[in-house]
Design a protein that fits this description.
228 residues, coiled coil, BAG2, mainly alpha, Methane Monooxygenase Hydroxylase, Chain G, domain 1
């Protein structure tokens, strides 16, 4: 499934002074048609009722900017949901590549599976979702360190140890978390202090994303452990 993303042009036009109900400069904002139509933002010179007409031009600008700000925030949230879905798919592919049952296949079967996995990874790589989070260098380093620790869990060949380590990391995200897998000896599952220390160096947005990633990973590892 190919994913095509279109960025609509935002056109700002200056209206004639005579066409503006306020006698000043009007600004019109228009967007190209998309598959999901958003309600059109009002124009600064648009008659939107007596309350709108009675507002000074500055207040009209502020009202429109408030609406645009709300839409931008909504767009960011939707993009982050899609980004999380992509990350989950990428994690699932990585887990399959390291699945111990692959050792039970013959060489030709493993080669076929590997080619299929590579094809899926390549197609997933064509989907680019980028929601920028402002980070300083220390936060960048902390995020890289956290991702490296999680990648070690994914690459591990022992699902039991991986699950326990994942639970420790998840506990570090929040001491109030309810464990997905409750039949674990509390003496063997505790907060990983090293992971917690690195996690605290990440931004709040990154911490939320990391927690979601660990929750999804723990569910998968728990299912793998039950199968065994």
């Amino acid at each position: 499934m190919e994913v095509d993303m279109f960025v609509t042009d935002v056109m700002i036009g200056t209206l004639d002074a005579g066409s503006s109900s306020s006698g000043g400069v009007g600004v019109a904002i228009a967007t190209a048609s998309t598959s999901t139509e958003w309600p059109r933002s009002p124009r600064v010179d648009e008659a939107g009722g007596s309350s709108w007409l009675n507002k000074p031009p500055m207040e009209r600008f502020i009202d429109i900017l408030d609406q645009l700000d709300t839409k931008v925030e909504s767009l960011r949230k939707e993009a982050m949901v899609l980004r999380d879905q992509k990350d989950f798919l990428a994690m699932s592919v990585d887990l399959l590549k390291n699945n111990e049952y692959l050792t039970g296949l013959n060489e030709n079967e493993r080669e076929e599976i590997d080619c299929y996995v590579q094809r899926i990874s390549s197609r997933l790589g064509t989907v680019e979702l980028n929601v920028c989070t402002v980070r300083d260098q220390a936060q960048e380093d902390s995020l890289h360190h956290v991702n490296s620790l999680i990648d070690l869990i994914i690459a591990s060949a022992d699902p039991v140890i991986s699950r326990q380590k994942c639970q420790q990391y998840l506990n570090a995200c929040s001491t109030t978390d309810t464990s997905v897998y409750t039949d674990i000896d509390p003496n063997t599952v505790c907060t990983d202090k090293k992971f917690e220390s690195v996690l605290l160096g990440c931004t709040l947005d990154d911490q939320k994303t990391i927690k979601k990633r660990l929750q999804a990973l723990l569910v998968y590892l728990t299912q793998q452990t039950i199968i065994h």
